[in-house]
Amino acid sequence: MGEYVIEMLNITKDFPGIRANDDITLRLRRGEIHALLGENGAGKSTLMSVLFGLYQPEGGVIKKDGDVVHIKDPNDANALHIGMVHQHFKLVEIFTVLENIILGVEPNKMGFLQKKEAHRRVVELSERYGLKIDPDALIEDISVGMQQRVEILKMLYRDNEILIFDEPTAVLTPQEIDELMGIMRSFAAEGKSILFITHKLNEIMAVADRCTVLRKGKCVGTVDVKDTDKVKLSRMMVGRDVDFIVEKDDAKPGKTVLEIKNLTVPSKAHKNNAVKNVSFNVRAGEIVCLAGIEGNGQTEFVYALTGLEKPSAGRITLKGEPIVQIGHKRGLQSSASLDKTKPILMPIRHRSKLGMSHIPEDRQKYGLVLDYSLEENLVLQRYWEPEFQNKGFIRKDQVREYADRLIRQYDIRSGQGPVTPARSMSGGNQQKAIVAREIDKNPELLVAVQPTRGLDVGAIEYIHHQLIAARDNGKAVLLVSLELDEVINVSDRILVMYEGEIVGAFDPKDITVQELGLYMAGAKRQSNESEAYSA
């Protein structure tokens, strides 16, 4: 048996208008964690999709244990013990965890499904690898981190030995990332081989043995991680030095743009409220970060703020105009300052016209219409403006010109330019498109939820500069982030949310990453909760 369990030799893959993989060679050793690094659209996911049988290459061969293999579809890949956790999970939301894990390989006896044995094996695997899950829970009711565990268990249930992780930490909390790194190390110690697509240099340095770098569809090289550092890797990835320090002047806050009073939002997952009587404000010329571990009410808060969900009580004012005003229900604490005589729930378009932009955490569900072209997505929030329509007819030349400008300015990479279907773009470039659209609206309030999720270091650097530029231009920015470094480096004020409440308000200069983590985990709490509103 040779040194390499997988060899991808001279792989070439073309799509309309673009060569995604150009003569790439990648070799994976048995029992190693091999990172695949590159900018958004560099061809990483495409290369792994070729290995998993989702795409057929135009050129090159794949060898497994030294023998040439032909992988026509994922069933062939599974037969060769190759499994993949995709960047956007392949799960059926209305099925249970157990049903998703066994889907396609259902155990049966004389045609009857044998769920009991499958349940026992899934529980055994979850306990063995520390992947705590509820086999009977519906996918639509569990967190994104839990959904990823389901994807990992799908691979383990099929006895896969070559494990492909495509951006596995993009949707995870810091604590979940640490857990995943430990799980990956345990897999490698057992002799499993891991291909690990990521943009995060810290994770490569922490867990990978070797790293192959792609740039614009070509292989730049493969290095031993122990012999390199983040600066060298980032230079290989983007072709230039990247500034890891966020440079910004002190904030000069002005008038209040967003005011939240006594906001309460019910939870869809349980009987308790997801957001509990939260109050704070965001002023022009500052970046306020709402930090917290996923599942502590930030998502429901943002949905209520942006109009995706209806709160049960509270008042939200944007530029002095109430956009939400709902009295407290009987049995809840009332507020003398809340006008309960006139319920208000402004539609999303009204909030947009009033000056609110929203970069959502789920780019595919709430950020894009995937079957629309890139240019159509870029004008989704503005197509009714005179610049883009005349007497009800879209001015396609103006839309094309506008899209071309944003594509150049934000380096959105797409095979067919503005007419590229959004669905066919890489996750990072989908994110860039949303960021470009929302920032270019020149909003009074920018609600940025995980704005750098799935982006490479060069793109992260650019987005951080854009957020700070918006602040310096007198805009109010509400940042919602799980990335502790981003929270500390970009914010002017930090509010920590735990179990639906604001448990701390801080100046980033006065708190460490470690202490912030304690507040996010609920281990610490400020005694004077009103500080969060007045800070």
Structure characterization notes:
By secondary structure, this protein is of the alpha/beta class. It has 3 domains: 4-238, P-loop containing nucleotide triphosphate hydrolases (Rossmann fold, 3-Layer(aba) Sandwich), CATH 3.40.50; 243-355 and 443-535, P-loop containing nucleotide triphosphate hydrolases (Rossmann fold), CATH 3.40.50.300; 365-441, no CATH class. It is built from 18 helices and 25 strands. The protein has a 6-stranded mixed beta sheet, with helices on both faces. Helix 13 packs across helix 14. Residues 329-337 and 529-535 have low confidence and may be disordered.
Summarize the structure.
With 535 residues, the protein is of the alpha/beta class. The protein has 18 helices and 25 strands.
Secondary-structure blueprint:
Blueprint: E1 4-15, E2 18-29, E3 33-38, H1 44-51, E4 59-64, E5 67-69, H2 74-79, E6 82-85, H3 97-102, E7 108-109, E8 112-113, H4 115-128, H5 144-157, E9 162-166, H6 174-189, E10 193-198, H7 201-207, E11 210-215, E12 218-224, H8 230-238, E13 256-266, E14 273-283, E15 286-291, H9 298-306, E16 313-318, E17 321-326, E18 344-345, H10 348-354, E19 356-359, H11 363-367, H12 374-378, E20 389-390, E21 393-394, H13 396-410, H14 427-440, E22 445-449, H15 457-472, E23 476-481, H16 484-490, E24 493-498, E25 501-506, H17 513-520, H18 531-534
Parallel strand pairs: 3-10, 3-11, 6-9, 9-10, 15-23, 15-24, 19-22, 22-23
Antiparallel strand pairs: 1-2, 1-4, 4-5, 7-8, 11-12, 13-14, 13-16, 16-17, 17-18, 20-21, 24-25
Helix pairs in contact: 13-14
